[in-house]
Amino acid sequence: MTNFKDTPPWKSINPPTSKLPNHPDKLRKVIDELDVEHAPRYAPQGTSTFCNIFVSDVLTALGLQPGHWCDTDGNPAKDHQDGAFEMNANRMARWFKLHGPRNGWEEADRLTASDAAGRGHTVVVVWDSKLVGTPGHIAIMLPEGTIAQAGRKNFVGGTIREGFGKLTPKFYVHVPSGPHSAAP
């Protein structure tokens, strides 16, 4: 069996931690398992970086959307499925705005997002580049208010400033509801 950390970024994965029950510590276990700082899957390749792949892998392991591929209605899709597209950082930013609310995601300010992360909620930090051909950026907020990201520099526990520079990202908090939600 191939190590999922060596799987090319354009292929979806299902990390072993996805089988763990939902628990406040699950995010940290997923982050540790994916090993963003060392896994070849997330290493920059020339001008290509894989923040979107890392975040979609984290969300998949947590049982949350969006995944690596979506259809035009924002629903999960299989890799290369007809009518589906791969979720880059800009598409993910737009997905959170358009489809996030029906999937348990709420936009929040930085302080509210940091507080929610500290209470065990999953929080995504995302910047949508409005310039055609310019990539956005996306990361996962950790319970202590720092972030885990893939990008030019892959790290766990860096500041938002280290990941986004002077950009102004948006914050989305997953607020679970219902019997099948990924509650903290």
- Silhouette: globular
Q: Into which percent range does the helicity of residues fall?
A: 10-25%
Distance between the termini: 31 Å
Number of helices: 5
Average pLDDT figure: 90
Which regions contain 5 or more consecutive residues with pLDDT less than 50? 178-183
Number of strands: 8
Question: From the alpha-carbon coordinates, what is the Rg to the nearest angstrom?
Answer: 15 Å
What topology, given as strand order, has the largest sheet? 3-8-4-5-6-7
Strand-residue proportion? 15-25%
Going by CATH, the architecture would be Alpha-Beta Complex
Walk me through what this model shows:
- This protein is α+β, with helices and mostly antiparallel strands and about 180 residues long.
- It has a single domain (about 25-175), classed as endopeptidase fold (from Nostoc punctiforme).
- Helix content is about 25%, strand content about 15%.
- The chain has helices at about 25-35, 50-60, 90-100, 110-120, 160-165, and strands spanning about 70, 85, 105-110, 125, 135-140, 145-150, 155-160, 170-175.
- It has a 6-stranded antiparallel beta sheet with strand order 3-8-4-5-6-7, sandwiched between helices. A two-stranded antiparallel sheet has the order 1-2.
- α1 packs across α2.
- The longest helix is centred in the N-terminal third of the chain and has 12 residues, at about 50-60.
